[in-house]
Design goal:
The complex is a heterodimer of chains A (192) and B (256).
Chain A: H1 5-13, H2 18-39, H3 42-59, H4 70-88, H5 97-111, H6 118-124, H7 129-139, H8 145-152, H9 156-191
Chain B: H1 3-9, H2 11-16, H3 22-34, H4 36-55, H5 63-153, E1 158-164, E2 169-174, E3 180-184, E4 195-203, E5 206-213, E6 221-224, E7 231-238, E8 250-255
Helix pairs in contact in B: 3-4
The chains are: A mainly alpha (192), B alpha+beta (256).
Chain lengths: 192, 256
């Protein structure tokens, strides 16, 4: 059963435990994708997911929709839980990025992704690597801009600039994707 | 900060990525409230990142949902139990703790007070005993003084001056109707070490022992009354007194 974001928020605000199940159904794969990339272990990622959902449940009544989307809020909690986990466990983030990304991509392809998102993924290939690397390190790996600067050995200012341009590019890509979606929709209608 | 200035800072992008500090987040949130078009822009960017995350989604293992839900259940249950356990008894716990503290204070003061009272009692008791002793002494002295007073005021009492060398003087208060008499040593010097004064009555030309004199007692000294005594004589004798007077050591003498 699909719920609108406002309905989910309503349940969350009322401390309704059903909210957790609904949030899980709607957002778990996207959140899990981020957590696995940060902690680099599916086993630890599952622990993190449990802890993160407990926090989501506890903090649920404090979510303020005027400050951002529900997903951003959920992701911030989940990402911070994952980052806390790797910091407490003495994990090292640097070193084997490429291998881990390959590992993750292999895993994803072996289990399969949402078919709706396959087109988007292809479009995302249009995003220049220099932007994609920085966005991924920050968004999926929990790096700060300063850490990215050190890791990639580029000035902090450049990191910030690339991040802004990268996000703008990304936005353009998704705009194209939604237009494309409408285009496909009209095409399918015209075929009928 | 104007809308344009804000856009240039790139804070919106950083906010969406969760990179802003709490202060920066607050600034962004204020700007979003003030400028709905900024909010729309920012929300669009967030939607964008959500899509990006979904594009990189990894389906979790099927068992994870159950683990997540049971963990949340467990925590919710624990919190409810803790709330129930704590909310009502908290009041009791606090009051019990307060009572205990109060009791301890009270006990301490009571104990402290008790020992203080006990100490005071002991001091007072000692003082009282001393006071009683003093009273007895005063009572005793009073009786002695009363007896002496009655003796001295008696019209039959006479003063006998016992004199010696260098104007040494001892006064005897003598009364034929009484069985005791008194001596006042006046300027009789203290006896040498190992010696004592002894008083004798001359009766029928014989020296009759009337006892040794306690020189320490500077007040009136009580002596027995001797019927038919012709004179009173004080000699210096060996400590403890003698059966017969050493007349060579006669210090003072007076005729009755």
């Amino acid at each position: 059963m699909k719920f609108a974001e406002s309905q989910i928020v309503e349940m969350l605000h009322q401390n309704d435990k059903q909210a957790i199940a609904v949030i899980y159904d709607h957002y778990a794969p996207a959140l899990y994708g981020v957590v696995v990339r940060i902690v680099q272990s599916e086993e630890i990622a599952q622990d993190v997911m449990q802890d993160a959902f407990v926090k989501i449940w506890k903090k649920g009544t404090t979510y303020d929709s005027t400050k951002g989307t529900l997903f951003t809020w959920l992701l911030n909690i989940t990402r911070n839980t994952a980052i806390d986990k790797i910091r407490s466990a003495g994990f090292r983030k640097s070193g084997e990025n490429q291998n881990i990304d390959n590992h993750v991509h292999n895993k994803v392809s072996s289990r399969g992704t949402n078919p709706d998102e396959i087109g988007v993924k292809e479009l995302l290939n249009n995003l220049d690597d220099k932007y994609r690397d920085i966005i991924d390190m920050i968004y999926f790996r929990g790096f700060t801009q300063k850490e990215v600067s050190e890791e990639l050995d580029i000035p902090l200012g450049t990191v910030k600039t690339r991040l802004r341009i990268g996000l703008r590019e990304l936005r353009g890509i998704f705009d194209v994707a939604s237009v494309g979606g409408v285009f496909l929709f009209f095409n399918s209608i015209s075929l009928l | 900060m104007t809308k344009e200035e804000f856009t240039k800072t790139g804070l919106c992008e950083q906010y969406v990525l969760g990179l802003t500090s709490p202060e920066e987040s607050e600034l962004v949130e204020q700007m979003l409230v003030k400028h709905p078009e900024l909010r729309k822009d920012c929300m669009k960017l967030e939607g964008c990142m959500e899509k990006y995350a979904r594009a990189h989604a990894i389906p979790p293992p099927a068992t994870l949902k159950e683990s997540v839900l049971s963990k949340v259940d467990k925590i919710a249950e624990m919190e409810r139990a803790a709330r129930n356990n704590i909310s009502v008894p908290k009041w009791i716990v606090y009051s019990a703790a307060a009572s205990l503290v109060g009791l301890l204070f009270f006990s301490f003061f009571a104990w402290d007070g008790k020992s203080k009272v006990e100490n005071e009692m002991a001091v007072l008791s000692t003082e009282f005993q001393q006071f009683q002793k003093d009273c007895e002494q005063i009572e005793n002295d009073k009786m002695i003084f009363a007896a002496q007073n009655s003796f001295l005021n008696d019209s039959k009492t006479t003063h006998i001056h016992l004199r010696g060398e260098d104007n040494t003087l001892v006064i005897a208060y003598w009364n034929e109707n009484r069985d005791k008499a008194y001596l006042k040593l006046e300027n009789l010097p203290p006896p040498p070490v190992g010696k004592t004064y002894q008083i004798w009555a001359d009766i029928d030309s014989k020296m009759v022992d009337m006892g040794v004199i306690n020189y320490e007692d500077k007040k009136m000294i009580s002596i027995p009354h001797m019927v038919n005594a012709a004179s009173l004589n004080i000699t210096l004798e060996q400590e403890g007194g003698s059966d017969h007077p050493d007349v060579s050591q006669l210090k003072v003498s007076g005729v009755i």
